[in-house]
Amino acid sequence: xxxxxxxxxxxxxxxxxxxxxxxxxxxxxxxxxxxxxxxxxxxxxxxxxxxxxxxxxxxxxxxxxxxxxxxxxxxxxxxxxxxxxxxxxxxxxxxxxxxxxxxxxxxxxxxxxxxxxxxxxxxxxxxxxxxxxxxxxxxxxxxxxxxxxxxxxxxxxxxxxxxxxxxxxxxxxxxxxxxxxxxxxxxxxxxxxxxxxxxxxxxxxxxxxxxxxxxxxxxxxxxxxxxxxxxxxxxxxxxxxxxxx
Length: 245
Fold this sequence. Notes:
CATH topology: Rossmann fold
Number of helices: 10
Shape: globular
Number of domains: 1
Strand order of the largest sheet: 4-1-5-6-7
Strand content: 5-15%
């Protein structure tokens, strides 16, 4: 009997050692309790405004909602995307905490304080259109977006920049292109992921028919935007869920 117990103990020890070796060789299994929280910041095109028959308002069918649906289809409800888009706002207002105070409990705080109180691991940043409409300079926009990215990274967040969708008015769109160039510049200089919605949409045939007015997409275009976001964001989410660097 003693010999049998000793053999059983030895077998258990061998199994435990093998398990440890496998863990060391292949890494620990992902923790199913791990969650990834994403926050989307931007203007009315992030909020999800669509216009119809002269009436404009936020729609449930927006790029942020579509992005969460797609991420959850792949990874389940461990991934959550919160929409903090605010109409008529600019990157400088997000940086300084001077945008709409109704967009979340910390919306009136400067970016650094707001993000320090956030549990999000990934933050999406989408501006440019209101910078054009409110006559900001490309240099002001560049400075604001650089500050947003640097602060996010310093607080341990992964920033993802998005260029604005184009505008049907050729004159305004030419000015928007200068803002888009600043977003691309910040992404390159700070080495952060970029979703170039401006380039993607501009190359779609008849893209202007997918706009509901001079700035806001129809739901179908919001879904296309979300697909572009997904291509960049999903690998980041997967690494976080798997616990890989």
